[in-house]
Amino acid sequence: NVVVILERTPLTEDLVDDIMSPATDYSIEMKNDIYTSLRLFPKVSAGALKSTVIHPATEKHINKYKQHAVFCVRETASDYNNITLPYITSSSFSLQWLYNLLAKKAEVDRIVYEDDDQVNGFMLVPDLKWDCKQTSNLYLCAVIHRRDIKSIRDLRGEHVQLLENIRDKGKQAIREKYQFNVHKLRIYFHYQPSYYHLHVHFANVSYNSPSCTLGKAHAIDDVIDNLKMDSDYYSKCSLTYILKENDPLLEKFKEAGRCFD
Amino acid sequence: NVVVILERTPLTEDLVDDIMSPATDYSIEMKNDIYTSLRLFPKVSAGALKSTVIHPATEKHINKYKQHAVFCVRETASDYNNITLPYITSSSFSLQWLYNLLAKKAEVDRIVYEDDDQVNGFMLVPDLKWDCKQTSNLYLCAVIHRRDIKSIRDLRGEHVQLLENIRDKGKQAIREKYQFNVHKLRIYFHYQPSYYHLHVHFANVSYNSPSCTLGKAHAIDDVIDNLKMDSDYYSKCSLTYILKENDPLLEKFKEAGRCFD
Fold it and tell me: Which family would the database say this protein is a member of (chains A, B) (predicted)?
């Protein structure tokens, strides 16, 4: 068994001269008034592909790279209590790596900002997806110090102060450290999150990652407003999220009688 | 002046044989255990580029294709009344094309479903971005018959029936016409919308277009829940959205004393 991944390489500025050279063949597909549509055949270097080969590949590898159907799940408050919460609890995802970070036993050099208050405090670190080089894809995460909030489902009116503290001090730290305009920040939670200890994403709004789509991301300002309107909003509301067909949580919804076929 | 747009062409299945042929040069970038990373140089046809040329181009053309900074605007209810609503009204976007559609004077052959009730009815048509060929990027729009609702800001509790009607009959029509699993649908509004006559987007949830990100899209189920909780929710809430630096609405916010620099 072998997995072969083929990807187009990004079009970078240094390729433009090569592509726009007289040596490049072309065919005209459409011409109308001032608009022309062409197909260009630049020399092979400009048309390079990136490939990753996994050999020998296990079933797990093959499964990971297969395209999976995705489904929208509408989780009511009672679904959370009867399906999602038991699933989270029984899966016992380890948070040791996170507790190491919060206790400064690891990643100490990556801390961008810390408020060490044990009730409303948090630690701000670059997300692993960000190389910290350019702000065009700036991406950081704020992780709270307290350990009693798994996700936005656990948030209540009493946590508004915590959230406003994260939002305001997080913005300020990013403005100061990266000279970044905070009006260009998208600040949000994931639900479902990738780990069950409350954390907040701070990302450049022009960076449209699939992780900030409807059915995955919740703006911190909306969450604060909802809690101010109704302290128990997140214990009562329905939340929509997207699951892959092989996600164990989707299986739990199916077992509970939901049909997604 | 000329605008040249260069894009990689999509990697389609019919290219795989060409790319994986012995004639393709390659260089190995990394090898570690079962993982190998390569750069492939297939023959020029497989590395083709798509290009669009606009010549002669006006300043407007150049401006349209320039990369623009984007900003997050948090619009309070009073911002809507004092800034956004006057802007929408004074800009007087023409809806004639839409009224032609609703009156069946145009695009008649594109109608997928119609409920001709003048209060709760709507027309379902494929979005222009969808070629109607494959359901992998299925994308339709439901346009309401009544003309008194510009956007979600105008929605009140009395409109829940209209929204539920669109959601339920829209899903049913898509299931029947395309044999499409409605659990794979993302159903949402845009705010700000591209035109100010209420319409609903029905898209394949696996199609992550930039138009369904946080700060642009609002799930119809969330909107219905909010209206059921508080009939005046959308006349009171704050809404976050993303504007390009050259958007006239952003200028209005700046004139009102908001700083985005």
Answer: Belongs to the HIT family.
Task: Point out the catalytic residue in the list B145, B159, B183, B199.
Answer: B199
Instruction: Count CB neighbours of A88 within 10 A.
Output: 18
CA-angle at B211, arms to A77 and A16, nearest 5°: 140
In B228-244, which positions are buried (b, 16+ CB within 10 angstroms) versus exposed (e)? eeeeebbeebebbbbbe
Give contacts of B 218-247 with A, CB under 8 A. Answer: 218-219, 221-222, 225, 229-230, 237-238, 240, 242
- For Cα atoms A215, B211, A39, give the angle at the middle one, nearest 5 degrees: 130
Chain B from 2 to 41: CB within 8 A of any A CB: 4, 6-9, 11, 16, 19-20, 25-26, 34-41
Of the candidates B65, B75, B78, B64, the one whose C-alpha atom is nearest the C-alpha of residue B215 is B75
pLDDT reading at A31 higher than 90: no
From B89's Cα to the closest Cα of chain A, the distance in A is 26
Amino acid at A256: A
The ranges of chain B with pLDDT < 50 are none
**Domain annotation for chain B: domains and CATH numbers:** 3-54 (3.30.200.40), 67-255 (3.30.428.10)
In the structure, what pLDDT confidence band is assigned to residue A240 with cuts at 50, 70 and 90?
very high
Hunting for tokens 């380890």 — which residue is that? A94
Quick check: A184 and A205 in contact, CB under 8 A? yes
pLDDT at B140: 96
Flag whether pLDDT at A186 surpasses 90. Answer: yes
Q: B126 in helix, strand or coil?
A: strand
Q: What's the pLDDT score for residue B250?
A: 95
CB neighbourhood size of A55 (10 A): 12
Query: Which residues in chain A have their CB less than 8 angstroms from residue B25's CB?
Result: 44
In terms of Cα–Cα distance, which of B202, B207, B145, B137 is closest to B175? B202
